[in-house]
Amino acid sequence: MVRAVTAGTGSRQHSGSPQGRYPAARPPSVAEGWSLTRLTAPSPLFGANGLRTGPDGRVYIAQVSGSQISALDLATGHLDIISPKGGDIVAPDDIAFDSDGNLYATEVMDGRVSLRDKAGCTRVLRDDVPSANGITFHRGRLFVGECREAGRLLELDLNGGEPRVLLENVPLPNAMEVGPDGLLYFPVMGANEIWRIDPDGGVPECVAGELGVPDAVKFDPDGNLVSTQVQTGQVLRIDPRSGDRTVLATLKPGLDNLAFAGGRLFVSNFTGAITEILPDGTTSAVLDGGLNWPLDLADGADGNLYIADGTYFYLLSGDGTPRTVGMLFAPGYPGFLRGVTAVSPGEFVVTTSNGEVARYRPGDRESDVVASGFDQLYGVTVAPSGAVVVAELGTGRVLSIGNDRVDVVASGLSEPVGVAITADGTCLVSEAGAGRVLGIGGTGTLLDGLQRPQGILVLDRHVYVVDAGAQELVRFDLDGGARHTIASDLPVGAPPGVIPKPLRGMPPFSGPQGPFAGIAAGPDGTLYVSADADGSILALRPMRPES
């Protein structure tokens, strides 16, 4: 017997647009004797990156990790999906419009620049622009920047000819704009400066330095430069003539871009938050932020739940609000987090999408690389011997890392994702590509007939597996071999009817990115699941019989 669960239960509700990013066909349901609660509200977006006001007055929002572009109606708060997940545009990072209303998007992970015309047809303009990121259109000319360590500034030929190189060897240029003086302004993240250059060529000039890692620039109606600072969360107004600067607002770090619409200023955050900066310096939430994926989960030694969300590492507070304890660009952050396990108070072992295993102490803002050079690491656990065990999806291996050596525990696997250790020391691995859970070391197949098993957990004498393909949580009895479906129709994996396209990564920030519906257990036996499809955290609890 199963029991339907009303979507959206939990302590914290989304206060912005009612639309989510995941069109669930049915609410989750749980087996008799279980309850399900949402600890965080679903996310309306897959994060928020490039912003641009379109010719229709709506604010268009690029979402890298979700391969989606949405349009926000400022009057109604309504969100429309313009380019959907699984569509022709992959990992859009920034957008621009020409005078005819055609949309141009940089696809940072595929090194492409695409055009989506007013009829909704998309074609690739260039596919040889590594880390294509910042983009702007000015008087019939299209400019693009490569956000990499030795990036270029380019003018693309709209007729298909070779690009013209304005500048080379720029350390991480980002979202750009042509100013009232006709010069092209762009942030240089690697130098912590904002530069400008004549679009026809010449020597670049530094406009402002010693900032908070600027990642976007636009111009206000008075001709002042306005820039978001990813590390400090500041929104700065800078006089391009004198360099004088004013702090318009200080928000949560992770700001990515900005747009002016009818004289109003809006900024985006990696979390998906869209915030209006009002003239008096106050702010107004237009869209609430949320979790971008989320990925793996860990029950900390302090009894709190921790969430690996790629660019952020969160502690889930009692009121259901994720509290940031680490983020990309902050000191000591080991990189784009994927797998996580707690090893001692304040210390975690993590895997990153850059192929590293690290010990991370967020409270001290420190991390130490244990091993590196791997191909798409996912789940991580620690064996009783102290060795770190990881799943390496790219090579189909399970590895044991310890005492300055790496041992291959298993090889030839089909997309290994999750790992766990049983009480007797047996290593279990979920093979997403084979649809099974395998016991390594002679145990053989423990559980098969799954679709895409990902997160895996051993609790008492049971194994719990998140099957992202079937959207189920399955329990397997290690003693009797019984199998039970604990929950169904979970918001994990891809949305219905969507086949996601690979996210190839964006060096130096991350390697290939992919989903990972993780699972963890609290001290009281509560199961926590990463609902990566709708961006929420679920809690499943066995219900105690009434006395």
UniProtKB/TrEMBL annotation:
Which ranges are annotated Polar residues under compositional bias?
Answer: 8-18
Q: Give residue ranges for domain SMP-30/Gluconolactonase/LRE-like region.
A: 49-262
Q: Name one Pfam family in it.
A: SGL
User: Known InterPro entries for this protein?
Assistant: 6-blade_b-propeller_TolB-like, SGL, Vgb, WD40/YVTN_repeat-like_dom_sf
Residue ranges, annotated region (Disordered) = 1-29
> What name is this protein filed under?
Gluconolaconase
From the broadest rank down, the organism's phylogenetic lineage runs: Bacteria, Bacillati, Actinomycetota, Actinomycetes, Mycobacteriales
